[in-house]
Amino acid sequence: MTKILLLSVRPDERAAINAWAQRHPDIDVTMSEAELHSDTVEQVAGYDGLVIQQRSQIEADVYPRLHALGVKQITTRTAGYDVIDLKAAQANDLVVSNVPAYSPRSVAELALTHTMRLIRKQELVDQRVREQDFRWDGLQGSEIHSLTIGIIGAGRIGGTSAGLFHALGANVIAYDIKPNHDLDDILTFKSLTEVLQQADVICLHVDLNETSIDLIDADALSSMKSTAYLVNECRGPVVDTDALIKALANKRIGGAALDTMVGEETFFNFDLRGKVLPNENLIRLREFDNVIITPHVGFYTNIAVQNMIDISLDDTLAIITEGNCKHLVG
C-alpha cells in the first residue's frame, strides 16, 4: 500500500486530510505535528510520499538522508517554498512541488479588509472606544472609490485583489515584471516608480525571490505619498522592516497593514500573552496606532485549507504513481 506522511499538521487540517483519505482508501495517510528537520527526518522512513508546511528552513543534512530513505519528492502545501533548498533537493533526486493557488480570493479579501480598516482609521477608532474616548477628532476616513490602489505583483492573488478593488470603484494601477494584459479591463499597468508615486494604497502580492527581497526599502517608501498606506500580504522580507519603522515614525507614510513579517516563525501562531515578545521590530510596530498586524492568516479560510490539503495530496500521489504533477517547482 502506498504511504504518505504529512508533517506540521494543525488540528484544523485533520478533517480535510481525513476526507481525502476516505476518498482514497487504498492510500495509507499518516499525520504528524512535527516539522521536517534533522531530528525528525527519520519519521519519514517507510513512506512513499512527503507533504510539509513550515516556516523554518530545512537543514542541509536532511536532503541526503531523505534520499537514503528512498523518498523521491517533497510537496509543500503552501505557495511559498523558500524553506526548501531546491539545489540540494535536486542534487538528491528529490522533486519539489507546491500549491501555487490554494485560494487567491482568501488573501485578496484580507488585502481588501486591511485596506478598508486603514482608510477608515479603524485601529485608532477601536483603541479610543476601548478607552471610552468617543470623539471624532482625527478619525475622518476616505472612501474607497476616491482612491488609487497600487498592486505590486499582479498574478493570481494580485489580479484577484485588483478585481475586488475595481468592483468597489477604485482606480487600480499595477506593476508586474510580466504584465498579464487579460487584466487590462480592471487595471492599468505602470512602472514600479509610477505605482509607488501615484497610489494611495500599495498592496504587495509578489513571490519571495532574490529580486523581491527588500523591494520596499527606504527609497521605495520615500517615493510613496505621505498619506499612502502599505499593505503586505505576501512575505515579510519583501519589506525592509527597519526602513518601514523609520518611515512610520517620521510620518513619511500614512500607515501599514502587515500579515507577514521577518522573523514571524518565532511569534506568529504562538500564545505569547503575558510574555516578553521575542522580536524588537514587532514590539516597535505594535506601538503605532496606524499599523495593523495579523498573524499570517491571509490563507486561513475554510476553502483555502481544504484546497491546500487536496492539491498537495493529489500532487504527491501523482508524483509517486506517474513521476510528475502540475505544480513542480525548480
Automatic annotation (TrEMBL):
Keywords: NAD, Oxidoreductase. Residues 5-329 form the D-isomer specific 2-hydroxyacid dehydrogenase catalytic domain. The keyword Phosphoprotein does not apply. The keyword NAD applies. Residues 113-298 form the D-isomer specific 2-hydroxyacid dehydrogenase NAD-binding domain. InterPro entries: D-isomer_2_OHA_DH_cat_dom, D-isomer_DH_CS, D-isomer_DH_CS1, D-isomer_DH_NAD-bd, D-LDH-like, NAD(P)-bd_dom_sf. Belongs to the D-isomer specific 2-hydroxyacid dehydrogenase family. PANTHER family: 2-HYDROXYACID DEHYDROGENASE HOMOLOG 1-RELATED. This is D-2-hydroxyacid dehydrogenase. It comes from Weissella sagaensis.
